[in-house]
Amino acid sequence: MNIEPYRQVLTKYWGYTSFKPLQEEIIRSIAEGKDTLGLMPTGGGKSITFQVPALAKEGICLVITPLIALMKDQVNRLNSLEIKSLAVHSGMSAEEIDIALENSIYGNYKFLYISPERIATRIFQTRLPRLNLNLVAVDEAHCISQWGYDFRPSYLKISSIRGLISEKVPFLALTASAIPVVIDDIMKNLGFREKNVLRTSFERKNISYLVRSAEDKGTYLLKTLHKVNGSGIVYVRSRKRCKEIAELLVANGISADFYHAGLPSELRDKKQTSWTTGETRVIVATNAFGMGIDKAEVRFVIHWEMPDSIEEYFQESGRAGRDGKPAYAVLLYSTSDKSRMEESIKRRFPPVEKIKDIYEALCNFLQVPQGAGKDSVFDFSMQGFVSKYRLPVIETYNSLVFLQREGYIEFTEEINNPSRVHFIVGRDDLYKFQVANESFDGFIKLLLRSYSGMFSEFVAINEETLAKKSALTRDVIYRFLVKLSTLNIIKFIPGKKTALVIFTEERLERKALKISPENYLQVKEKYIIRLNKMIDFADYNTKCRSVTLLDYFGEEADRCGSCDVCRERNELDLSKYEFDLILEEIKEILAETKLDAQELISRITYPEEKSMKVLRWLLDHNKIIMDDKHLLMWKEPDLFTR
């Protein structure tokens, strides 16, 4: 096939003259009509792989993503490039969704973004066959696998699209990280016509992975940041600690700020921009910080606490060094971390009866009667909910996560929906209204000068901007909008910031709420397996960190030479080949019997000097232990067993 038309699209809209290697492979695969799974690490340019081929062909691309904020951001970026795009998600009114779907059929749009819980709704399923689709792109595709770290039942409904569209429309599934079993699940659950996985290596040769044992993490962090140059991210697990650490850094002369999902969206945007532009050097953040980050010159990512899985750690640490220059990913690890993570298992998995209590309280809080509520969307205040019923926040949150995993509800983090306006009269009737109502004429002209497209769809507006342009107060602007709405000239939806709860099934009686003990234990077991792998990464300091990460994702690689494990080995003045051979021989010998050091060295077939170096290294790293009779034995990793 000729790749040139696709390069022309890339150059026209994004200014690049060539694709990254995997981008071109994926585009060629899609152009040949093949269902394709693209595995692209964070920062690899995933969106290009569906945006370019969709623009090169007639028709519209359907993009499925669970991240509403990212969806809105991409739609805004495309529209700023004069690429007509729109979105459908649970934060919109039924009328907005109806208009958006009609426009996607008749309005010459190129991209329709939709959240997965909208896929199964009647309004979407009835319109879907009328869409002139050229591609279906599924972002965050790991969400379709129960082995994925962020499984969402709504993703399982995506395959129902196939029966409503042309067989010629290819599916493109994209994810930044997936283990082999998840890769198979993605292709199976999306109904791939044949297996087709395109991937780039997960290896990041410019990142040095370091695990640092630090009981006093604050002192270590300050010492490190005073010593190293450049900008970076410090990831933490709680909002409270987020602010505390940022204040600690500032008090010690380090330019820093904090970021978490509980902050107003305008403030979050301001903080992220300040960090992106270099005004702030260090951002201390929860995992809410990450979406849409395109800063290339990040020199370090430091994890104050351990994430719950290798996937999370790999994605977050992968935000370092996207410019290809040397960067560091540092995990701070203390003796208390393991017990904290054991405790987190209890909080993450409330008892089944407690989950049912939360479900009933939620239904009562939202006033959903039994047998009703399917596909209904509710504004939701977590703070109001836990306050009213005196519920523990973490247990409540994790109960909602489990109810989502079981397919009873979907819920979003807080999203910022700006005010929206849609003119419901034609231009001729509007002109007559302006002539007859002179007091509204100036305001209507202000609206039409400031925003376009309001006659065909709901358009996001900013009351503050209109107030500045007109020298009116925000309150006066708001009253104008409300009055025009009551006069049936416009439809006005006031802006709001809220989390949402969507009932994907009608409210059930408690006894009908199926949370089987087997499924509950299976989900818990999978979580513990992922957690153990993360602990293993931190604990097991005889294997190259990069090799450990790549092995988890089913990829082979040579040791990196730059992680903390490799650096210590390098100091032994042994080649990797020599070190590994001696280590394996020691392990085999001690697996059969306990020996004292002298006898062990005598049994090893390699030179005594080199064997002693490896033996000392293993003793220093607690991989070999000595009993009360001074006999040596191999120590297996201490992982959770429950």
Mean pLDDT: 90
Low-pLDDT runs: 638-642
Largest sheet features: 7 strands, parallel
CATH superfamily membership of the largest domain: P-loop containing nucleotide triphosphate hydrolases
* 3D shape: globular
CATH topology of the largest domain: Rossmann fold
Q: Give me the count of strands.
A: 22
Order of strands side by side in the largest beta sheet?
3-4-2-5-6-1-7
Q: Tell me the Rg in angstroms.
A: 28 Å
CATH-derived architecture of the largest domain: 3-Layer(aba) Sandwich
**How many H/I helices?**
25
Helix content: 40-55%
Number of domains: 5
Structural class: alpha/beta
* Ends apart, CA distance between termini: 54 Å
Q: Report the portion of residues in β strands.
A: 15-25%
Q: What is the CATH C-level name of the largest domain?
A: Alpha Beta
Please write out the topology.
Layout: H1 4-14, H2 21-31, E1 36-39, H3 48-56, E2 60-64, H4 68-80, E3 85-88, H5 94-106, E4 111-114, H6 122-127, E5 133-138, E6 171-175, H7 180-189, E7 197-199, E8 207-213, H8 217-227, E9 231-235, H9 239-251, E10 256-259, H10 265-276, E11 282-285, E12 298-303, H11 310-317, E13 327-333, H12 335-348, H13 352-365, E14 377-380, H14 382-389, H15 393-405, E15 409-411, E16 415-417, E17 419-423, H16 427-436, H17 438-450, E18 459-461, H18 463-470, H19 474-486, E19 490-493, E20 496-503, H20 517-539, H21 545-552, H22 564-570, H23 576-592, H24 597-603, H25 608-620, E21 624-626, E22 632-634
Parallel strand pairs: 1-6, 1-7, 2-4, 2-5, 3-4, 5-6, 8-13, 9-11, 9-12, 10-11, 12-13
Antiparallel strand pairs: 14-20, 15-20, 16-20, 17-18, 17-19, 21-22
Helix pairs in contact: 1-3, 2-3, 13-15, 16-17, 18-19, 23-25
